[in-house]
Each structure stands twice: as structure tokens, then as C-alpha cells.
Design goal:
The chain is α/β, with parallel strands linked by helices and 284 residues long. It has helices at 18-28, 61-74, 99-110, 128-134, 148-161, 178-183, 204-210, 246-269; strands spanning 6-13, 32-41, 46-54, 78-83, 88-94, 115-122, 138-140, 166-169, 188-193, 215-222, 232-239, 273-276, 279-282. Strands 7-6-5-8-9-10-11 form a 7-stranded mixed β-sheet. It is globular and about 60 Å long.
């Protein structure tokens, strides 16, 4: 089977004839569908569709879009088309814990993640050598109550200057302001452990171990002004044995956090995630 060149994302009010009209439009432009996934949400009445396809020589997202406009208008579609050969430009933010950062960098180098890391931003210096080893620019933006607003403006300037598509909070332990969250809506993915909200603050895994929890997990989600309550992209858990120590919980938690964040980033960058109100549709 041929490798697809493009992916088309469509959402709209569910009605008859949508799939046929989209398929006919794609075929009319001398394209061939490689894979199609769709979902009709009975609760919201919305229809979601992801189509990957090959195109003729010289086709671009712009030229396909012009040909697709009549169908989009007829069915009042919300739609996007992406060139799958273009990697997403990603800026990674990290504090002291580097487990997610290291996994992301490895997955990017091996090609598992279709991202180009434009830079690493941190409120600590400890990962500078790691960034330099990979040849990635490193920006140290220390945060205090007095400098938070100024440093956030520097961050937004970096994002614009580097033409960043995605900001990944790889255990970045500072909260973005409401205004920054709104400005970057749909472009920021965060990871947090499953001990929230029960064990907020310092040493959450130790306090979870003291309470005898029987699983640890992680949630990757889009960032919104509502702290840790944005639309969820991926989640996973691992079980805890009675003989596990607090350090065992930490190790399991870090492994799960890395795995879940990478899964969410991959889904986003492969254009497999669509928003459905406060929920997400994540196509396989």
C-alpha cells in the first residue's frame, strides 16, 4: 500500500451523504484514499472523519483545498488538510525531572515522533548540556513572582520567532498564565501524574505510597486556563504491589509519564486528535 501524502480532518453536524461527498471530491482530484476513519457522536450530533490519501505529482495542501471548497461549503464542514511530509516544529519545556525530555529527544532522533525540536526552554540550567549534546538551542528562563510575566513574554516571543507548532510541557513545573493559555490554545500538551488531585504539591508519590495506592498513572492533555483540566489525549496506568517502595512508585510513575506524553505528542503530530467539546476524538 502506498504511503499517504496528505491527511484530511473533517468535523460537522452529522447527516447523510457526507462520506460519499468527501470521497468523490478526493477522487475527482486524482487522489487515492489510503485509510479512512470516522466517528459519529450520538450525544453531540457531530461527525468526525480522518482520511489519509496520496495525491498526483505537484499537488499541495493549497491546491487540494481549492478543489475541496465546494464540498466543504455544501456540508458546512470544519476541515483541515495537512502535508504528512512536514514535521511539526516543537518547543519542549522542562524543569528538573528529565525523564519525559529524554524520551522525547530519543523518539525525535529515531523518527518515531514526526517533530523537529526547535529549542528547549527551562527554569533551571541542569539540562543545558543535554540540549547541547543534541545540538538544540537551550533557553534558561528562571521564574520568580517578580519575573514571571516578563519571562512569559520572552517565551511567547521565542514561539513566534521559531514558528513553533507545538509546545510540550515535559514535566515543566510552572503554571502558564491564563492569557498565555488562551494565546496558545490547542498548541500546548502537558503531562501530569495520576496522584492529582488527591496528592497535590511536593512528594506526591511518597504520600501516595503512604496511603497504599494500588496503581500509578499519567494523563496527557491540552492546556487550558483551567489547571490540569484540558481535553485529555492519552492516559495509562501501571499496578502497584504491596512490596513496592516509594522509589518503585516514582520509577513506575516516570516511565508511565514518558510513555503517555510520547503517545499524546505522536497522536497530535500525526493529526489524529480532534476536539469534541471538552473531550477528544483520537483516531488510531
Amino acid at each position: 500500500m502506498a504511503k499517504p501524502d496528505f491527511v484530511l480532518l473533517v468535523s460537522c453536524v452529522d447527516r447523510k451523504g457526507i462520506v460519499a461527498a468527501i470521497a468523490n471530491s478526493i477522487a475527482a482530484q486524482d487522489c487515492n484514499i489510503v485509510h479512512n476513519a470516522q466517528f459519529g457522536d450520538a450525544d453531540s450530533g457531530r461527525f468526525f472523519m480522518r482520511v489519509t490519501f496520496t495525491g498526483p505529482t505537484g499537488m499541495t495542501t493549497e491546491s487540494f483545498g481549492r478543489g475541496f471548497l465546494p464540498v466543504a461549503a455544501a456540508f458546512d464542514l470544519q476541515w483541515q488538510v495537512h502535508d504528512l511530509s512536514v514535521k511539526q516544529r516543537a518547543l519542549i519545556m522542562v524543569s528538573k525531572g528529565g525523564h519525559c525530555l529524554n524520551d522525547l529527544l530519543y523518539r525525535a532522533v529515531t523518527g518515531y515522533l514526526p517533530i523537529e525540536v526547535t529549542s528547549i526552554v527551562s527554569n533551571h540550567e541542569i539540562w543545558r548540556r543535554r540540549a547541547e549534546h543534541e545540538g538544540i538551542p537551550y533557553h534558561y528562563l528562571p521564574i520568580t513572582p517578580a519575573t514571571k510575566a516578563e519571562q512569559e513574554q520572552k517565551l511567547l516571543a521565542l514561539i513566534e520567532e521559531q514558528q513553533v507548532d507545538l509546545i510540550i510541557l515535559a514535566r515543566y513545573m510552572q503554571v502558564l498564565s491564563d492569557s498565555a493559555c488562551r494565546a496558545l490554545q490547542g498548541k500546548v500538551i502537558n503531562i501530569h501524574h495520576s496522584s492529582l488531585p488527591a496528592f497535590k504539591g511536593a512528594r506526591p508519590y511518597h504520600r501516595a505510597w503512604e496511603r497504599g495506592v494500588k496503581m500509578v498513572g499519567a494523563t496527557a492533555h491540552y492546556v487550558t486556563p483551567d489547571l490540569d483540566e484540558g481535553p485529555i489525549i492519552a492516559q495509562d496506568v501501571s499496578t502497584v504491589d504491596h512490596a513496592d517502595t516509594a522509589d518503585d512508585l516514582i520509577a513506575q510513575g516516570q516511565e508511565t509519564e514518558s510513555r503517555v506524553l510520547t503517545r499524546a505528542v505522536k497522536a497530535h503530530c500525526e493529526h489524529r486528535v480532534m476536539l469534541n467539546g471538552q473531550r477528544t476524538v483520537v483516531f488510531k
